[in-house]
Design goal:
Helix content is 1%, strand content 49%. It is mainly beta and 630 residues long.
């Protein structure tokens, strides 16, 4: 028998006795298909007692905990915490909020003040008041436009004066009936004029222009209640959802002026308290669902299509159960964050302290890539502290398109170089970023270098002069520290430094380079450089300045075109017949041929336990898993 609980629906009133209704409904427990992943890297780093989660513009995930701040880049975890006497450290280890401004700085609120954090160095600048004194009380940061920073504090509402670099008090309203000050717990934004403040005595609507405000009176069983607001969320339809302490989830409809209360316990307390710690509405195509957390787990409340009305027949509660390994971890959920891949991240007051939830079924979305030709390479880069995706095309136009982290087009190059209309200028093979925050681009007409705003600052081509290419056509490039490796089309490798000085050239059949055409160059986590050519696989030995050739079969050449490094340092290599697993330490290999002839794997992408490989010869996308071959 599946357990179920009764939820009591109570109607509350805003500013008077408005007519309402109540209804009872059931919900199921651990029945809807949700997978709760527990990232290994975060568990090994000891990330626990997580209060808040945020993903910045660079793709870094940040986890605010009771014991400091963690940064996760998908592989590595960095940690910073409060140090006595160090004013460049966190002001307090109890992190309660994280947000980002338009400059890419992280604003971190703690129970003992706020700091501005440099995302790379983790150096902290502590927030001060008008008199340049550190503000040491509980503080949560919010922003609507990434320019204006607001702070919810025990002392009211503040915002940051960028010109004078201090936090100034904007509003410290008092209750009209008893004169008590409002302690602000959380902030929401309706529009440019109206803010919603969660306080210890209810919901306050504030006009940002004249600071006029009103308290939304709340009635339960005909009695006025002043609930403690723990969290609030304004969804994509401007519907206000309010989490309270012991009064459940509140829904405020602006058109009707009503609050509705959703409770999951009777008036007599049970083992599941009516306390909401976090709320979020997740949308996938035409489906919308509200997720909210309580002491027992998280509720999923689907919405009826096209409305903000809950689908009462499909509400589910997800609770920890030792018999369900893919269910939520043990502990009280404390914070939600939806990333740009439709994953819902959840913080918990336990270890492991993070669960990642795939709330929607896997789907393929078409990127807005417009081209006349075919895609040669897709790469992610970080430039000017921002993450971008670069799509290189051959035999057409545009030659290069650059998208931001939300897949919005930010730069479109029809040719490369941009002012060159020659057909070969439609062939871009790869990009790479140097230590000076510049983007290097290889094409069949030249090497082009841009600044962080994608303005061309240098073009390197072949004109029989010093510091030029051995051939205009370039097939790939790789930047290793301050050395630029450039694959010359059927002509070996040119070497430059990042000051545009030519360092040398290796021709085919020199230094052990038994390859005329190089498709890709790869630097592994140990600093070794590998070449994938038209026929063979090579490794460069910097001690001897020689290339070592590898073959994976006694009677055939591998034709490697793509490579992915596994966590253990071994490689998966895409070849014309399928995948090859290669261990560079033992130099042993294992083949995973396709079940169809002429598969010709051209590109692949890996994640934990999986490898996705595109077979151009069979028009298939195959998945290789660690416990199976397909």
């Amino acid at each position: 028998m599946r357990p179920s609980l009764i939820i009591l629906l109570s109607t509350l009133f805003l500013l008077g006795n408005l007519p309402g209704h109540a209804q009872n409904f059931h919900f199921t427990v651990n029945t809807s298909p949700l997978y709760f992943d527990k990232p290994d890297a975060l568990q090994k780093a000891g990330v626990s007692e997580v209060h808040c989660i945020y993903k910045d513009s660079r793709g870094f995930m940040w986890f605010g905990t009771e014991n400091g701040l963690y940064r996760f880049d998908g592989t590595n975890v960095l940690y910073t915490h409060h140090l006595n006497g160090d004013t460049n450290s966190l002001s307090n280890n109890d992190i309660i909020s994280i947000t980002e401004d338009s400059d890419g700085s992280l604003w971190v609120g703690t129970s003992g003040g706020g700091v501005i954090v440099n995302a790379y160095t983790l150096k902290c600048t502590r927030i001060k008041d008008l008199n340049h004194n550190e503000i040491g009380y509980k503080m949560s940061f919010y922003t609507q436009d990434k320019k204006t920073i607001w702070a919810a504090t025990d002392d009211g509402l503040y915002n940051y004066n960028r010109e004078k670099q201090f936090l100034q008090k904007i509003w410290g309203g008092k209750e009209k009936n008893n004169g008590n000050s409002f302690a602000v717990t959380c902030i929401g934004f309706y529009n440019n004029d109206t803010m919603v403040l969660g306080t210890l005595t209810g919901v306050v609507f504030l006009n940002k222009n004249n600071l006029g405000y009103r308290l939304a009176n709340f009635y339960e069983n005909a009695k006025e209640i002043k609930p403690i607001v723990s969290t609030l969320h304004i969804d994509d339809k401007e519907e206000l959802w309010v989490g309270t302490w012991t009064h459940g989830l509140l829904q405020y409809n602006r058109s009707t002026g009503k609050f509705i209360s959703y409770k999951w316990e009777k008036d007599n307390p049970s083992n599941i308290a009516n306390i909401v710690s976090s709320i979020i509405v997740v949308r996938s195509d035409d489906d919308r669902a509200l997720y909210f957390s309580c002491g027992a787990g998280i509720f999923k409340m689907p919405m009826l299509p096209g409305t903000n009305e809950p689908d009462m027949a499909r509400i589910s509660l997800f609770m920890h159960n030792d018999l369900l390994p893919n269910g939520p971890s043990k502990g009280v959920p404390a914070g939600f964050y939806e990333d740009d891949m439709a994953n819902l991240w959840m913080g918990l007051s336990s270890e492991p302290g993070v669960n990642k939830i795939a709330v929607t079924p896997p789907v393929f979305n078409t990127m807005p890539v417009q081209r006349n030709g075919y895609v040669q390479e897709s790469q992610s880069i970080t430039l000017g502290r921002k993450k971008y995706y670069c799509v290189s095309s051959w035999h057409g136009s545009p030659a290069l398109q650059i998208f931001d982290s939300s897949l919005q087009l930010v730069k479109n190059f029809l040719h490369m170089p941009p002012d060159d209309a020659h057909p070969d200028a439609g062939n871009v093979s790869s990009v790479s970023v140097d230590s000076h925050d510049r983007l290097w681009i290889s094409s069949w007409r030249a090497i082009v270098v841009t600044d962080k705003n994608f303005n061309v600052i240098k073009t390197i081509n072949h004109d029989n002069k010093p510091d030029t290419l051995s051939r205009d056509k370039t097939n790939y490039l790789l930047i290793d520290k301050d050395s630029v490796w450039i694959a010359s089309y059927k002509n070996g490798i040119d070497f430059f430094n990042t000051d545009y000085k030519r360092l040398g050239h290796i021709a085919p059949n020199e230094h052990g380079l038994n390859e005329s055409l190089i498709w890709k160059m790869y630097k592994d986590t140990h600093g070794r450089i590998w070449l994938l050519g038209n026929a063979f696989f090579h490794r460069y030995d910097p001690a001897t300045k020689q290339f070592r050739q590898y073959t994976f079969s006694s009677d055939d050449v591998p034709y490697p075109v793509d490579i992915a490094e596994r966590k253990d340092g071994s490689f998966l290599i895409a070849t014309k017949n399928g995948l090859v697993h290669f261990d560079p330490v033992t130099e042993k290999f294992e083949s995973f041929p396709s079940d169809k002839p002429g598969a010709n794997v051209r590109q692949m992408l890996g994640r934990k336990g999986e490898m996705w490989a595109a077979e151009s010869g069979t028009d298939r996308l195959r998945v290789f898993r660690s416990n199976a071959t397909q």
